[in-house]
Write a structure and sequence with these properties.
The complex is a heterodimer of chains A (about 70) and B (about 200). Chain A has about 70 residues and is mostly helical. Chain A contains two helices and no strands. In chain A, about 5% of the residues are buried. The mean pLDDT of chain A is about 80. Chain B has about 200 residues and is mainly alpha-helical. The chains are: A mainly alpha (about 70), B mainly alpha (about 200). Chains A and B meet through helix 2 of A and helix 1 of B.
Chain lengths: ~70, ~200
């Protein structure tokens, strides 16, 4: 749009192009940095925090079935 | 048959401590504030880029030059304030008395930064760099907006310093100091961007 409103080699065109590019990039950069920091903080924390160990009841020992030839 | 008393045994409820969140509420709050502030400054810098790149000559030849040397020295003062403040935060996190005066020192250095900037502004105005010109207008807007943020941070630091003096012995809370330190880091990082952009 800036190229059509002004001439192509106009410094105003160049200035608007750089400014638009900067303003497009900035929200992604800022929010990306914030999101990345949150992600890293959670990941670092996740390594230390583990789920509770559930104590299961003691099971009775069952003898293994005999694997000999079948008796007729 | 005699009537007896029925006693119901109290069920003991094991109190389980909730795990600390990965990011504390104070940190999250200040990060949200900083994100919003960064967007404000991104808009201002975008405006500055348009004016600077579209100008045939920057700075205009008929206007006074900005005092780069004094501003560079002022930057050193601002960045130097990070050292005592970081030490004070480290001490508060460990519940130690080390670096207790760091908050006061940082507030004083911040106030000195503002004073030097104010004196320079008066000199520039006397030399004819008024906000009416595009060059002067963008300069005062960008640097003035940063100065307002520094002023807010200095007031915050001063309040923290007073609260620290009035606090009972043994009472330590690093939450407020942590928020203020993060904000101060942001203000310094912003100056690291604005100084080369505007002055150089």
């Amino acid at each position: 749009m800036c190229g059509t409103a002004f001439s192509k080699d106009d410094p105003v065109t160049r200035a608007f192009n750089w400014s638009v590019l900067f303003l497009i990039a900035m929200p992604y950069t800022i929010f990306g940095l914030a999101a990345g920091w949150l992600f890293l903080a959670h990941r670092r924390r996740g390594g230390r925090h583990r789920a509770d160990v559930i104590a299961l009841p003691v099971t009775r020992q069952v003898p293994a079935p005999a694997t000999g030839p079948e008796e007729s | 048959m005699t009537a007896g008393t029925l006693t119901v045994p109290r069920r003991s409820v094991a109190t389980r401590e909730l795990p600390e969140p990965a990011v504390s509420n104070t940190r999250l709050a200040i990060v949200i504030v900083i994100t919003a502030e960064s967007m404000l400054f991104a808009g201002l810098i975008g405006m500055y880029i348009v004016f600077r790149l579209s100008a045939r000559a920057w700075p205009p030849p008929d206007l006074p030059r900005l005092p780069v040397g004094v501003a560079a020295l002022n930057s050193v003062i601002l960045f130097a304030s990070l050292v005592p403040l970081s030490r004070a935060l480290r001490g508060a996190r460990r519940h130690e008395a080390t670096g207790r005066g760091g908050v006061q020192v940082a507030a004083l250095l911040g106030a000195l930064f503002l004073t030097v900037q104010g004196v320079e502004w008066l000199r520039l105005l006397a030399h004819g760099l008024t906000p009416e010109s595009m060059y002067g207008g963008t300069f005062y807007l960008l640097i003035g907006c940063h100065a307002v943020h520094v002023l807010a941070a200095v007031i915050w630091l001063a309040v923290l310093a007073v609260l620290e003096r009035r606090a009972r012995p043994g009472w330590t809370s690093s939450a407020g100091l942590e928020m203020c330190t993060i904000y101060w880091y942001f203000v310094c990082a912003l100056w690291a961007v604005l100084f080369p952009l505007v002055y150089l």
